[in-house]
Design the sequence.
């Protein structure tokens, strides 16, 4: 089974900051890596698929990169609506999610 | 625009069976995509439960495989989740979602989720 890890588990940031979240797979998943944003009481929303492809309607301040086992989600110029929890998910074998990264206000 | 809606009991007794349905509109479960269940204990992270294809073929999370069944109910375009021998650890929000096979199996369409509490 593929295990997914994320770092950090939480971070505090200010409006306008650049934020980077990393995700690591226990074995190569090519670029079968998706990123989701989730706010309390809501279903997750897809941000990035195939490691770096922006989902329809997602602001361009979100970007993703990586392949194999190491991946990154970057938010340039953090906005108030970006305070949320972010999950990576591998879709190479099944659908295992990372443990999440909570982004809150500094 | 595909829409998904979970339904089922919000309370299940310990050792009982959790049964949920996901009604799909705007797409056919007989098409070329997989359909999945994901759960989230209150205040915790997301856990992939499993998925089902139009043929009825299903894949499951190894940690739940002995207790879970995901199947298709083609009339009226629903798929379902059954989880047996539940305990308090199975208390969670349960989400159904469409797996977009054409875009690296991402989950871009989700139901709103349903809270299922396991308690006597």
Sequence:
């Amino acid at each position: 089974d593929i295990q997914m890890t994320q770092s950090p588990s939480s971070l505090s940031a200010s409006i306008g900051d650049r934020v980077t979240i990393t995700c690591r797979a226990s074995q190569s998943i090519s670029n079968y890596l998706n990123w989701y944003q989730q706010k309390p009481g809501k279903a997750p929303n897809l941000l990035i698929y195939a490691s770096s492809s922006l989902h329809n309607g997602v602001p361009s301040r979100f970007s993703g990169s990586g392949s194999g086992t190491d991946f990154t989600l970057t938010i340039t110029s953090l906005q108030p609506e970006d305070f949320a929890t972010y999950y990576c998910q591998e879709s190479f074998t099944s659908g295992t999610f990372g443990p999440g990264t909570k982004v809150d206000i500094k | 625009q595909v829409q998904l809606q979970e339904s089922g009991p919000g309370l299940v007794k310990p050792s009982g069976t959790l049964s949920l349905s996901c009604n799909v509109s705007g797409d056919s479960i007989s098409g070329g995509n997989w359909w999945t269940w994901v759960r989230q204990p209150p205040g915790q992270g997301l856990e992939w439960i499993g998925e089902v294809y139009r043929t009825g073929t299903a894949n499951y999370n190894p940690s739940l495989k002995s207790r879970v069944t995901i199947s298709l109910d083609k009339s009226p375009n629903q798929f379902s989740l059954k989880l047996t021998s539940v305990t308090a650890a199975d208390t969670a929000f349960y989400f159904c979602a469409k797996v977009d096979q054409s875009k690296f199996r991402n989950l871009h369409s989700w139901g709103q989720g349903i809270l299922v509490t396991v308690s006597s």
